[in-house]
Amino acid sequence: MEEPLLVLEPNTLTAIDPTTGAVRWSTSLPGCNPIYARLAIAEGVAVVAAYDFLACVQQQSGQLLWRVPTRKGARGGVVIRNGRLFLYKSGAIECYDGRGARLWAREGESQYGGSLGFSGDVCWVPNDRN
């Protein structure tokens, strides 16, 4: 079966069949505002980084696997890599395992969040320093 198209809507993550347009599943995520939330899809899961939580949903079934609170902050970036989740929000980077347990956190110098990404073994994180 082809992977669904995932759509982040207010308080909901919805999977759409890319061939027919039919809704495959819809998972409730109370408190999720898609204007501020970010979505990462990899390794069979979808991770939603919302204003004050991370949620992990099984990509094919829509089953909510876990939801954990995070620091508050809008427009954080989230990346899934090697079974870990990396969250960049409000100037800090946090690393979580595949079960939602925080492994470590590093405070940064930026007051904002943003995107982060990997290239090889290097993690690229923007900041707002001159």
TrEMBL record:
Protein name (database record): PQQ-binding-like beta-propeller repeat protein
Q: Where is the Pyrrolo-quinoline quinone repeat domain?
A: 11-109
- What species is this protein from? Polyangium spumosum
| Segments crossing the lipid bilayer | none
Superkingdom to which the source organism belongs? Bacteria
Please name the InterPro entries in this protein's record: PQQ_rpt_dom (IPR002372), Quinoprotein_ADH-like_sf (IPR011047), WD40/YVTN_repeat-like_dom_sf (IPR015943)
